[in-house]
Amino acid sequence: IVINEIKDEL
Amino acid sequence: MNIFRLLGDLSHLLAIIILLVKIWKTRSCAGISGKSQILFAVVYTSRYLDLINAFISPYNTIMKIVFLAASYGTIYLMYMKFKATYDVNHDTFRIEFLIAPAAVLALIVNHAFEPLEILWTFSIYLESVAILPQLFLVSKTGEAESITSHYLFMLGSYRALYIFNWIYRYYAENHYDLIAIVAGIVQTVLYCDFFYLYITKVLKGKKLQLPA
């Protein structure tokens, strides 16, 4: 599970 | 990018455009909480600082810039250009009671104790409650214009659609962010009462009017 690896959301 | 995320972003964008067009066309910001608009500007500013140090996609960059510009544009219209129409006597929510707890919580519950990470977390917490001054204003005046209701509905739908996006991402990409999810659920729950009134009244052509 990747937790918040890249914040790609707005 | 999935359909929920895209619809969520479009709903968010539409909300912001509805608000700007409403103020511009009617030359009035009556019924709109300047306090909520200030909170949203703080939210976008603290969250989108990563424009400086991280590039994700042209879509991501453009949307961030649009949200920032629209947010500051709204504040300009409310506090400068159409200041005379601003409902200052009803917009009395104390925003420090939202900003301070969001800041404290961001310092305690975050993914990493780093300046940008704490600011991002603060923006997520603050966004979840940023609509409260607006809802408070509507409850104080007891009514909202249809266009203001459409704005609120789009703004509420945005985070609700993000919840579906997070469910999808959990299963499809093994991706989740508990801070965003919990805050997003809180944010959506705050709109539930309004959603009910919107569906039962505004969509049937009636004005959103609260019982006296």
TrEMBL record, chain B:
It comes from Laodelphax striatellus (Small brown planthopper). GO terms for biological process: protein retention in ER lumen; protein transport; vesicle-mediated transport. This is ER lumen protein-retaining receptor. PROSITE patterns: ER_LUMEN_RECEPTOR_1, ER_LUMEN_RECEPTOR_2. InterPro entries: ER_ret_rcpt. The chain crosses the membrane at residues 62-80, 92-113, 119-139, 151-172, 178-199. It is a multi-pass membrane protein. It comes from the Eukaryota. Belongs to the ERD2 family. One of its GO terms (cellular component) is endoplasmic reticulum membrane. Its main location: endoplasmic reticulum. It is found in: Endoplasmic reticulum membrane.
